[in-house]
Amino acid sequence: MREDRPIICRESHAVVPLTQGHEAIIDRRDVAAVSRHKWHAVADNNTVYALTSILNEDGQYRKVGLHAFIMGSKFGKRVDHRDGNGLNNRRGNLRFATASQNQWNKALSRNNTSGYKGVRLDHRDNLNRKWRATIYYDGKHHSLGYHATPEDDALAYDDAARNVFGEFARLNETMSPGSSTHG
Q1: Candidates 2.40.50.90, 3.30.730.10, 3.30.1330.60, 3.40.50.1100; correct CATH number of 102-174?
Q2: pLDDT for position 97
């Protein structure tokens, strides 16, 4: 049992203190199992995750994310955070996903200039620059057309993402413009 950073139980959830001043949220039912390990914060792209090291049957330590630990995920099986927040590890926010599904729920990339997912300024014609919506699936970029504003492109992307990605779609309507909160 860890004693240096005890888990704090609240009415509807529990808070797991991590390193670097971060905290993870879990369901109260997971407190006993989670409290047997020391958890630390690790930044990865646009979010922060809680990790620990667990000894395998073969005597080797491996890093395990709190989300995978809670879901009982075997090595190689992905667990996705529905809201894109790597510190929200309540069971209702976690789901198993393929590598592709996990990518579909990804936040804006750091080099995004439009403030919207799937939207970019087309630079092919420097005189008549237009916003262009694209969506990536099946290993290819698919054009969704040119629009007068990035907001119109964002709506086109959202429509396509709902159809192609289903429940794993990270939509612009759920993100504020310029947001970089993950996926």
Answers
A1: 3.30.730.10
A2: 85
